[in-house]
Amino acid sequence: MDSPQTVPAVELRLSISGTEPLIWRQLVLPESATLAELHGAIQCAFGWRNSHLYAVAGHDRSGKKRLFMDVDDGDGPEGAENPAAARLLELFDPQKPGVSDLLYEYDFGDSWTHEIEVVGPAELQENTIACLDGAMRGPIEDSGGVAGYANVVAVVSNPKHPEHREAVEWLEFVTQESVLKFDPKAFDLVAVSGQLRSLAQRLWSGEVTVADYEDVLGPILWFLQEAQHDGLPLTSAGYLKPSFVKHAMTELGWDDEWISAGRVEVSTLPIRSLREQLQEWKLLRKLKDKLLLTPRGRKLAGDPEALWAFLADQFANPGSDAERLATPLFVHWELTGDEPPYNLRDQVIQAALHHGGLRTRTGGEIPLSWASDLYYDVTRNLHRLELWERPGWVRMNEKLSDAGVKFLLEVQSRMD
After folding, report:
1. Is 155 in contact with 67 (CB distance < 8 Å)?
2. Could you give phi then psi for residue 275, rounded to 5 degrees?
3. Which entry of 49, 206, 325, 410 is 20 to 30 Å from 200 by CA?
4. What integer pLDDT is reported at residue 343 of this predicted model?
5. Interior CA angle at 300 toward 298 and 303, to 5°?
């Protein structure tokens, strides 16, 4: 196996101005990274939620004053440049350590200003971002800037403060974690590194390869190819025969993840769900006592690239308005690992449906139970694909594989 390729990089220390104790992170990024990619790294490293505008302002290596903002053309100040068009090497000289006058400001209301210091040159594995060290938990979003956040920490830490209860309720609502877990002095290098790894996967996913098609589409391709010749025989009740169900569970490696007394399709959810989904996609159809490939299924069974594109389009443009409004949320959560806790998740989905104009037949708000059902329906369909590092049927806090990231990015690119 080839050793990972390394690339020239720059080591930066970023500190949030005015915080005491100082909140800082030490990052290593490729010299070729853009300011937009640096923005993404800062968001991950400090635990920001990327829910506000940002700007980078100061002088570049030649002494020219620059301003970068990620806004639509004409919406920003005169002379503002696109941060996606500027590379770090254009702005920072790795051979000249010291504090740069370039500042990164996030959330113009709270005005979180991050000072950038060049530590020096470095080398980095290609298509990665590293966090070497840091101190303190990142501030809480929308807490009122440096002074506001310091006040939140002080009030939450003092049970005798008259606003203690109100501050605790606000903190728990915003962070969706118990106040008992809130530690402003904590810095979790492992968690930050995981976020940066996920970001790098999304930023530099690379070209889709034949191996990617096989990894993501494995169970679907296997099923279609099994039905390719004479179809799959069905029982008189219209289910796949137990002998095939047993064979499929073994071949797909799902035996140890689904314990049941027998291999009857009606009680073997992994196979039944996969078969039903393939029928819903109109890749398989029942005809008398057999399950046969449709013309579309025959065409795609031998063309993984076309099947990849077809399925990406199916997820990007689902048939119902509810799925169309909610699927972008689910794909974003899978890619970023930023899914809300279950007690908030359904409220977020409900709000998205309401914002999109969906109501019940009587004009009422979509119930939370409907939002929950929608979540499980769409994510269950995603689980028909092998998007995660560990192949299998059960998904419990699994990390997306590189191929899985590529597929979901393809889905995002096809959304209307």
Report:
1. no
2. -60, -45
3. 325
4. 76
5. 120
Q: What is the mean pLDDT of the chain?
A: 92
Three-class SS of residue 404?
helix
- Start-to-end CA span in the chain (Å): 40
Which regions of the chain are under pLDDT 70?
1-3, 73-74, 261, 391-397, 416
Q: CA distances (Å), 252 to each of 99, 292, 378, in order?
A: 55, 20, 22
Distances (CA, A) of 289 to 216, 233, 234, 238, 296: 30, 6, 5, 7, 20
Report the alpha-carbon distance of residue 138 to residue 40 in Å, rounded.
15
User: What is the rounded distance in angstroms from the CA atom of residue 23 to the CA atom of residue 196?
Assistant: 18
Backbone angles phi, psi at 106, to 5 degrees: -120, 135
| Tokens, residue 367 | 């119930």
Q: What is the pLDDT of residue 395?
A: 57
Strand partners for 113: 105
Nearest to 28 by CA among 112, 118, 103: 118
**What are the C-alpha distances in Å from 219 to residues 115, 251, 401?**
49, 9, 16
At 3 the pLDDT is: 62
- Alpha-carbon dihedral 311, 316, 320, 324, rounded to 10 degrees: 160
Sheet of 290-293: strands edge to edge? 232-233, 290-293, 284-287
CA distances from 36 to 39, 155, 188, 193, 301 (A): 5, 35, 24, 19, 40
Pair of tokens at residue 342: 């279950």
